[in-house]
Amino acid sequence: MTEIILASASPARLAVLREAGLDPEVIVSGVDEEAVTAESPAELCLVLARAKAAAVAEMVAQGLVIGCDSVLELDGQAYGKPKSAEEATGRWRSMRGRTGRLLTGHCVIDTATGAEAAQVASTTVRFGTPSDEEIAAYVASGEPLRVAGAFTLDGRGGWFMDGIEGDHTNVIGISLPLLRRLFADLGVSVTSIWKQGSFH
Ligand SMILES: Nc1nc2c(ncn2[C@@H]2O[C@H](COP(=O)(O)OP(=O)(O)OP(=O)(O)O)[C@@H](O)[C@H]2O)c(=O)[nH]1
């Protein structure tokens, strides 16, 4: 049986994989994200995804290790999690009514062979127009501080999102269609490793 290891502390990534039939072991990478720089948001999230997967792959003898990193790209800048309520408020006041790209870097390492497959997935996100009072209430909920881009699709942020173009799981934190392709690049079919369905 192919062991799947998720090198991420993200509860949302784990939930997406479990709902999709996998039951990964979680080993948090502990990579210091602040220490990494890059030329572009896409390069940043890919470098970080690869660093997280590589850090955990060293601890695993046999299995597929998945590392991810998500950033919001707006005006060519990369936005991760806000560092304060004030920052989250400022971001929402400047991004409401606008369109950005949620980028998630993905890296899968087959620890038995050392083979690696990595790519960035991009989803266009259109922000709604919450009022200053709504922004204050959303920031006060604490949710924006825990997520890249200070918004969620599937949480309280969903009230303030006008729509997306592309894969929604990528916004939540891990793109299932891209992950299926990366597994295939490593010779693994996702339907051969998902748990047998129990929907009868
Ligand atoms: N539920 C949910 N979570 C989101 C959404 N957008 C971003 N996130 C989360 O925001 C976090 C992005 O930060 P990252 O640095 O990529 O990941 P992390 O949570 O710090 O965990 P590591 O992978 O261990 O670094 C992830 O946990 C994503 O799942 C969303 O729309 N819904």
Descriptive notes:
It is found in: Cytoplasm. Its EC number is 3.6.1.9. It comes from Sphaerisporangium corydalis. InterPro entries: ITPase-like_fam (IPR029001), Maf-like (IPR003697). It catalyses: a 2'-deoxyribonucleoside 5'-triphosphate + H2O = a 2'-deoxyribonucleoside 5'-phosphate + diphosphate + H(+); a ribonucleoside 5'-triphosphate + H2O = a ribonucleoside 5'-phosphate + diphosphate + H(+). The longest helix is centred in the first third of the chain and has 17 residues, at 41-57. It is globular and about 50 Å long. The two termini are 24 Å apart. It has helices spanning 11-19, 41-57, 85-95, 132-140, 168-172, 176-185, 190-193, and strands spanning 4-6, 25-26, 64-74, 77-79, 99-110, 115-127, 161-165. It has 200 residues and is of the alpha/beta class. Helix 3 (85-95) runs antiparallel to helix 4. Strands 1, 2, 3, 4, 5, 6 and 7 form a seven-stranded mixed sheet that branches. It is built from seven helices and seven strands. 32% of the residues lie in helices and 24% in strands. Strand 1, helix 1 (11-19) and strand 2 (25-26) form a beta-alpha-beta unit. Residues 8-10, 12-13, 28-29, 33, 52, 68-70, 80-81, 147-148, 152-155, 171-173 line the site of guanosine-5'-triphosphate (GTP).
